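FW: tagging you since you asked about this chain on Friday. Here's the raw sequence from the shared folder, copied in full. Didn't touch anything.
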Amino acid sequence: MSESINTLDELLNDPMIQLVMERDRVRPAELRMLLEKARDRAADDSRIDQPVLPPAHVVARSCLKQWLYR
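HL: got it, structure written out here
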């Protein structure tokens, strides 16, 4: 991955990212939806002390519940 990746599309099209996602059985469309929901929630949330994205272990647990992992 290079320093010049600026967008989610560029990140998801990176061959190394694709390999890792395939290994972890993460679907690009589901990841995109999760990130868009977080972005929309952050835009709606006016509280500064509220974290924009939850910690990785919380995301992983929610992905398991939604069958984003196998």
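FW: Residues 42 and 50 are 9 Å apart (CA to CA).
HL: agreed, and The mean pLDDT is 76.
FW: great, closing this out.
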